[in-house]
Design a protein that fits this description.
The protein is of the alpha+beta class. Helices cover about 35% and strands about 15% of the residues. It holds the Pfam family Peptidase_M23.
Amino acid sequence: MASNRPAPEAPFGSYDTIGHPTASGFPDAAPAATSEWNPTEDTIRPVRGRHRVVKQRGGLARSSTVLGVGVIAAVGAGGMATAQDKPRVAISLPDASSLPGVGALLGGGADEAPDETPAPANLAALTLSAESGPADAQGAGAEADAGEALRARILQQADQQQASAEAEARAAAEKAAAEKAAKEAAAQQAAAEADAKAAAAKARAAEEERERAEAKAAAKAEAERLAELAASYALPTSSYTITSTYGQAGSMWSSGYHTGLDLAAPTGTPANAVHSGTVKSAGWSGAYGYRVVLELEDGTEIWYCHLSSMTVGAGQTVGTGDTIGRVGATGNVTGPHLHLEVHTASGGGIDPLAWLRGKGLTV
């Protein structure tokens, strides 16, 4: 430490161009050519306070501004290192050298030689110099706190952006899944409806086919029955023409309508038994002329009227197709014909034409 003693004052006088005192300025001194003043630590007044010259390392001055830029860069580097274990979110930081006023501090002059000690790759490794004053240390600590807060905000924003991106992706995936499920459900419903329609059409076709088969079977059975009946039944006469049918109205009949079937044929045409049976009566019957009543096994009676002659008698048994008389014009008639009536076992008259056709005969 320097002494606080007062330094001796140098004599006042005149000096030459290189700072040497002249003889005229110092009468008691030695000649100027042999005298030289060399100041020493004891002859110099001590300077109070601490003064230092900051050495620039590679053009980087230790100042609060540059230290703040370093902290920001370190925060960005630390944030990116921390975010390596998370999905990357694009965060851009400006280049420190592009900030106004920072490039000159970092780069230095073009003719300035670089420092022997290279700048550290990670600016976060910079530390405060032991020579810095308390004010610089406090400022650096405040700036470090601000940088840490900025880093925390950047990480928070990155987390928020990541969470938002994940939420949007999840919502999009859920929407796509819902749309896909709706399409699949609609397709399944359409397929089910198509299957139901096809099944209904198939069922209708099967029902129609069954009905056709049943109708065909019924027609076949009826045809077989009629064929069997036709083998056991015969037409009452031949070479005939139908001139009047059952129920036909007219004044020429006493009941007001025709009660039988008129088959016009030449006189003498054979009248045949339509089925095997027993002759119930044979003789004259007023307006019916000569009449033969043939009773069948089920009690049905067949009346043959207006005959010209009869070839059977009451109580006689006949077979299908046997001749029982001949066509004539006896009784109340206008010409030769066979008047045929059919009566049920109860005595009521029915349509002979329908009855004959019901037995399989073609009339």
